[in-house]
Specification:
By secondary structure, this protein is an alpha/beta fold. It is about 45% helix and about 15% strand. The longest helix has 27 residues.
């Protein structure tokens, strides 16, 4: 029975009715079948090893650290160092760190777990009237599931328009730009490319700041004496070359302080996760944690607004490593504030932000589920 016949008889559509029809495009009977008319949304996060094991971590680091956006040193210098030393020494150490935060119940890293859950949350928030017209999925820039795999899958479902949403609130060439680079590489191989939009960074979007504020009011109790706003660092050289990341971090921090009524002494900005010999953005989070303890701060909190999903940088580097350093220096209570993860306010922001960026492609008459 056709969809029209079902509607005439007061019957609901069948699952097959929600797929765009397979049809030739003004071709003959021998034209290969194609599926058209859907819009795809792909949430993209950084990436993760498949397992907390040396081999899996080595594969992940090889892909990640080979990206010239991440490490832009001359290849004649960097590749021998990467393959001769780093990939032979670092994976075993990093695998132990991943093992300390691994989600055993689902056998995956927290980053993978929360990224998938965020996509599922946005899918549930979407207007039911868009079922059959909108596909929402997720991918990793490095590791699995790959961007190429997920773009191919969305096209096979009839998505001829794709919105790519890098899950980095603040833009950096080493994060957002490398997603765009990879999308371009994938499309370059396709005879028929889908139309592409890339969502902008959302470092100053009201809904994102709303979600951060809600999280702060939940986790920052009256006994907290200082809250460090810790962002992932980049080399200072990138900033001097025009990368806006530092400015975006500063604005996120300022907007959050204004919402909370904090000054920059109570809530200083810092940068974590330094890698390599270069000078990185300062001050470092580690230095501010040590200084707080030396100043007599007993209850310290840290939040990482550059990460929307808890990961090795927040769960191991901050919650384990920096906690130990603070306590060893004389601190008493250390609060590691969770990332936004699947907070309701953040999922609703993602949904609204996506609908905003799909303007002209998709409309949601009822505004989504509340």
């Amino acid at each position: 029975m056709t969809l029209a016949s079902r509607m005439e008889n007061g019957m609901p559509p069948s699952p097959s009715d929600t797929l765009p029809p397979m049809r030739p495009l003004h071709g003959g009977a021998d034209h290969p079948p194609v599926r058209l008319g859907k819009v795809g949304v792909l949430l993209v996060n950084l990436g993760t090893p498949d397992a907390p094991e040396t081999g899996a971590v080595r594969r992940y680091l090889r892909e990640f650290l080979s990206d010239t956006r991440v490490v832009d040193y001359p290849r004649l210098f960097w590749l021998p160092l990467l393959y001769g030393i780093i990939l032979n020494t670092r994976p075993a150490k990093t695998a132990k760190l991943y093992k300390s935060i691994w989600r055993e119940e689902s056998n995956e890293s927290p980053l993978r777990y929360y990224t998938r859950a965020q996509a599922e949350g946005v899918r549930e928030a979407a207007d039911p009237e868009l079922a059959g017209h909108l596909e929402i999925d997720w991918a990793m820039r490095y590791g699995e599931p790959s961007l190429e795999e997920k773009i191919d899958a969305l096209q096979s479902k009839g998505c001829d328009r794709l919105l790519i949403l890098p899950l980095y609130p603040q833009y950096s060439g080493s994060t957002t730009a490398t997603v765009v680079d990879e999308v371009g590489r994938i499309l370059k191989q396709k005879a028929w490319q889908p139309s592409i939009r890339v969502a902008p960074p959302f470092y100053d979007e009201d809904g994102y700041i709303d979600a951060l504020e809600a999280s702060m009011r939940k986790h920052v109790t009256g006994s907290v004496e200082r809250v460090i706003l810790s962002f992932h660092g980049i080399p200072q050289r990138y900033f001097r070359q025009g990368d806006p990341y530092h400015c975006h971090c500063q604005k996120t921090a300022r907007l959050l302080r204004e919402r909370m009524g904090w000054d920059d002494h109570f809530a200083p900005l810092a940068f974590q996760s330094k890698f390599g010999p270069e000078k990185w953005l300062e001050p470092s989070t580690e230095d501010l944690v040590e200084a707080a303890a030396e100043e007599g701060v007993k209850h310290l909190a840290i939040v990482a607004p550059a990460f929307v999903s808890d990961c090795i940088e927040t769960l191991e580097e901050v919650d384990m490593g920096l906690r130990e350093g603070f306590i060893n220096k004389g601190g008493s209570v250390f609060t590691s504030i969770p990332c936004l993860n699947t907070d309701d306010a953040f999922i609703q922001f993602l949904h609204s932000f996506i609908m905003q960026e799909l303007s002209g492609w998709v409309s949601s008459p009822s505004g989504g589920k509340r």
